[in-house]
Amino acid sequence: AMVGLHGARDNGGQCERTLNLFNCDSSTLTCGNSPPVSNPPSCMSGDTGVLSATDKAVKAVENLKVGEEIAGLDEHRRPSSCTVEAKGYFGRGLVYGNYTQDHYVLNEGDVVSEHGTSDKQREAEKYAVLTSCPAGLDESGVGFTALAQVFFGDGTNAISWSDYVLIHASILSLVRASGPFWFSPSTYVSMDVIGKYTPALYETMLDCAKDSSTCDRFEEAAASLVSNALTKDALEMAYIYFPDLGNTVALGSVSSVISGGK
């Protein structure tokens, strides 16, 4: 399914304003400018090739559009057709092969971890791509995610596949409920600031996904991130889509999206 803006309590004009505000292409729902950040975000290179799920042709990540089907892996790590749900542009920077050092990819076994520096270093345009599957596949067979070390925190450099699947499903639900602006760098005050709040968000999101009785902590972490790491305009948009942010039991909370209203 396409990334939707239909969950908001506003009209089409407000939705269009949102796209313009966060530098989103209204035809592709791709968001972002090259960000002036002190801590460059971790991503994948725009010239990374992915396989179209329809004709098996190789297509560069930078040319992907939301709604396209590409090859990936489902929650059981089986080959699957996956929909591009969101795509963000994060400027130019160093990558090793096709990924930044601390971008999370699927490694052999039951682990999702940092890409590392074993591949050749180069400069490239950088993107983050969220698909409907837990992992997309590049043309070399690497399973890529939309996440990086800044989301998990310094104390985490790998997570189990089973935990990652829960995190992916939670993020996918939030994006489908509110739109792609979370993948725009202009949504955040800076990468340094957001990195202070995402580790708590990750830990509590995982707990909430596993046990809805623990979602109070996730709601608090989400409210803290929104209040402190988002720009003023992004803060306003977050409350349009989640008007009850901070109130775990309310339908307009982020927890209700993760827990299915439980």
From TrEMBL:
Superkingdom of this protein's organism: Eukaryota
Protein name from the UniProt record: Uncharacterized protein
